[in-house]
Design goal:
Blueprint: H1 3-18, H2 27-47, H3 53-66
Helix pairs in contact: 2-3
C-alpha cells in the first residue's frame, strides 16, 4: 500500500464531495448507465458455457469489486 496514494485519493474524494453540486453532474444518469453496464457483464458471465458455476460466481464478484462494491467475507478465499 502506497500511503501517498491513499492520502491523495482521500483528498480528491473529499474535494469532489464538497463541490459535487457545482460539478453539474447528472448522478442518476451515471448510476443507471453504470448499473446497466454491470448487468451486461454479469449476463455475459452467466451465459458463458465454458465456465464452471464457481467461475461464474467469481466473475460476478469481480464485476462488483471492480465497481467498489464489496462482497465482504462472503467470497474471500
Amino acid at each position: 500500500m502506497d500511503i501517498r496514494l491513499e492520502v491523495l485519493k482521500a483528498y480528491v474524494a473529499d474535494a469532489v464531495v464538497a463541490n459535487f453540486q457545482k460539478l453539474n453532474i447528472d448522478a442518476d444518469e451515471i448510476v443507471e448507465t453504470r448499473a446497466t453496464e454491470m448487468l451486461s457483464e454479469v449476463l455475459i458471465a452467466i451465459r458463458d458455457d465454458s465456465l464452471t458455476d464457481f467461475d461464474v460466481v467469481d466473475k460476478i464478484v469481480s464485476v462488483f469489486e471492480k465497481n467498489n462494491i464489496t462482497c465482504l467475507g462472503r467470497h474471500d478465499f
